[in-house]
Structures are given as C-alpha cells and as structure tokens.
Amino acid sequence: MSFLPIVLAIASILAVFSWLTGRRLPIQGRRPSRSRSIQRDRGVSRSTRKQLMRLVGGNAAVAQRLVKDVQVHNPGRTEQWCWEKAIYDIERDRRV
Fold this sequence. Notes:
Elements lengths: L3 H18 L12 H6 L6 H10 L4 H14 L5 H17 L1
Helix pairs in contact: 3-5, 4-5
C-alpha cells in the first residue's frame, strides 16, 4: 500500500485550509518579514514613528533632526523615549 496519495491529500487539504483562512504554513528557516523589522527598527514602534511623521507633515529630515536634538540633550535615554519627547515638544509648542 502506497502512502504517497495519502500524504498528497493531506498536503492539499492543509494548503486549501491555509489559503481559505489566510494563514501561512510554518516554514523552517524562514526569515522574519521586512515589515516587522521596520516596525521595531531601532526599538521605536511604528505608531510612534507615524505620529511624529504626521506632525512634521511627512518630512523625514525634520523628524530626524528633532529626534537627534532630543538625544543630544538627553543622553542615555532610549530611542523610543526620544521620539515620544519630540512628539510631546511639538504638541506642547503648538498649544501655546
């Protein structure tokens, strides 16, 4: 008795189930997706980056300059903290 047809049937069922549910089957040695590495690039969450970029009108150079300035004045703080401080500073300045 050959097990090949049974194995192929099981593989087909798993493939159809995966396709219908939108799940990916686990693959050995698979690298994390690029979007996930961008999301936590240097320890800063995607939502924090988006918020600062929205506040500076999408100007990445301005956002980087603001974060760099916060880092210079607050050595030892995390990258996430510096991004949040830059956001806080912009919002504070706009309230005045």
